[in-house]
UniProtKB/TrEMBL annotation:
GO terms for biological process: diterpenoid biosynthetic process. One of its GO terms (molecular function) is magnesium ion binding. SUPFAM superfamilies: Terpenoid cyclases/Protein prenyltransferases, Terpenoid synthases. It comes from Ananas comosus var. bracteatus. This is Uncharacterized protein.
Length: 352
């Protein structure tokens, strides 16, 4: 694998977005796709082989999710978590195992009571002092606690407890574990954008000699490359679409946010089978941005009222005479809706 390349786009916080790359000069896209298919089959076998070891299952599912490749194993993960939800985990007082099970099940919308952590509290209701040196357990509890429901004070206390002790320990930890702790303290994984988390976690996973599985690591890198190529193609096509609208030269008051709007949508769903929905949503997000700029930065109240009436009545012809900018905005809005309807018409529905 090559190291890292940068995709520089001023629309994304004026900062380089580092992405994983592969040796594109020696490996074709066809080879990479075939290799990914082979690796997926290998990982499915591994998931099946560790079915009798719940903790290994949890660790692997967590890694697959954070590396951004879990979408290849939805059926296997659903089946595994369903069984883990039905059966009590024999964790023998292992905080890491208890917290990891709690987090993964809650992430998949299973209800797990936070009472499972009561056994880690002393008679005064505080977390046991013996946990203060259990870095893996503290880290796992820290991540789990951010899935708290309103009123779960125990998990609020867990955040304070784990944050305090992880910060006090981090400078004394070996580098791989220290990097994981710092990564979590910056932003818990549950709150991160999945694509960026995958990129960052690939490096953390690669450095973790205890957890790393080379088959999964190779899959994560190759799969990231394939999705990266798809996402780049999508954002290129969206930029061309926006350019062809003529908006940039005529609605000069509007912010040029096409790439930014796409990036927002990428945070909602990144999987390849959502490509069409992603493209449509990015276009409409950009239209909402145009409308927002028109109302906030350009139009007067007297001009915007008839524009609002046209949109509410959904009457494109009524836009005649509103003014060049408003007519273009309506034309773009109606045209994009019609384009989407036409694309969906063969399927007999109006959803992407």
């Amino acid at each position: 694998m090559d190291s890292i390349v940068s995709l520089n786009n001023s629309s994304i916080a004026n900062k380089d977005l580092e992405v994983v790359d592969v040796d594109r000069h020696s490996k074709s896209e066809t080879w990479i796709k075939q290799r990914v298919d082979e690796l997926i089959k290998e990982v499915k076998v591994m998931l099946h082989n560790i079915a009798a070891d719940p903790l290994s299952q949890l660790d692997m599912i967590d890694s697959l999710q954070r590396l951004g490749v879990a979408y290849h194993f939805e059926e296997e993960i659903t089946e595994s978590l369903s069984k883990l939800n039905e059966n009590t985990l024999s964790d023998h007082g292992d905080l890491n195992a208890t917290a990891l099970r709690f987090r993964l099940l809650r992430q998949h919308r299973y209800y797990v009571s936070c009472d499972v952590f009561n056994k880690f509290r002393d008679e005064k209701g505080s977390f046991k002092s013996s946990l203060q040196s259990d870095v893996k357990g503290l880290l796992s509890l820290y991540e789990a606690a951010y899935l708290a429901l309103p009123g779960e004070d125990l998990l609020d206390e867990a955040i304070i407890f784990t944050t305090t002790h992880l910060k006090s320990l981090v400078d004394r930890l070996e580098k791989p574990l220290a990097k994981k702790v710092l990564h979590a303290l910056e932003v818990p994984s549950h709150r991160r954008m999945k694509r960026l988390e995958a990129r960052l976690y690939i490096s953390l996973y690669e450095d973790d000699d205890e957890l790393r599985n080379d088959v999964i690591l190779e899959l994560a890198k190759l799969d990231f490359h394939l999705l990266q190529s798809l996402h780049r193609e999508e954002v290129k096509n969206l930029s061309l679409w926006y350019h062809d609208l003529g908006v940039k030269t005529k609605l000069t008051y509007a912010r040029d946010r096409m790439v930014e709007c796409y990036f927002w949508v990428l945070g909602v769903y990144y999987e390849p089978y959502y490509s069409r929905a992603r493209m449509m949503m990015a276009k409409f997000t950009k239209l909402f941005s145009l409308i927002d700029d028109t109302y906030d930065s350009y139009g007067t109240l007297e001009e915007l009222q008839p524009l609002t009436d046209v949109i509410q009545r959904w009457d494109e012809k009524a836009a005649a005479g509103l003014g060049e900018c408003y007519e273009l905005l309506i034309r773009v809005l109606f045209g994009t809706v019609k384009e989407s309807e036409k694309e969906l018409a063969p399927e007999g529905n109006h959803t992407a």
